[in-house]
Request: fold
Amino acid sequence: MANPKQAQLNKIKADILAQKICPELAAGATQLVFGDGSPDAQIVFIGEAPGKNEDLQGLPFVGAAGKFLNEMLATIGLKRADVYITNIVKYRPPQNRDPFPDEKLAFLPFLKAQLAVIKPKLIITLGRHSMEALLPGLKISDVHGQPKRLGGQVYLPLFHPAAALYNGGMRQTLIDDFIKIPRILAKIN
Reply:
């Protein structure tokens, strides 16, 4: 039997297309990159926007940063199919520029709808853009790796895996933060 949550997620995806969210971004992208993983996941990872590989494959985090994310998941005994991965902005911005505030704002209701369907125990923001969208007013350099509770939901802000690829010190910080995830989940449960 089809997962009822998956059907709800498919409807949100269809709504983005039907409502022509960010048409100028859509025009420059190959396709909408909605999300990937289990609709019943306890953990949702949220990045900022798709890059080139993501745009081509239609899946989030499939480039170098995604490979690093997969490796980190393996260190805590998880694989992609166990979690759900998405981005705030669902189309690749031209030349991989940062998403503009109005683009993030346009997609935010759909991200919140995705989260409302999945109902994860833990939302992990990857990078400052997704953190700012969900936990405004914090500085990632101050709060990375520290769980935050907001409106009954637990968030864990982490550095973006892409940043760690270019910065060895940050790579270790991200790994150190990442291995806290099972303990944080256990506390929530």
Notes: The chain has a mean pLDDT of 95. DSSP finds ten helices and six strands in the chain.
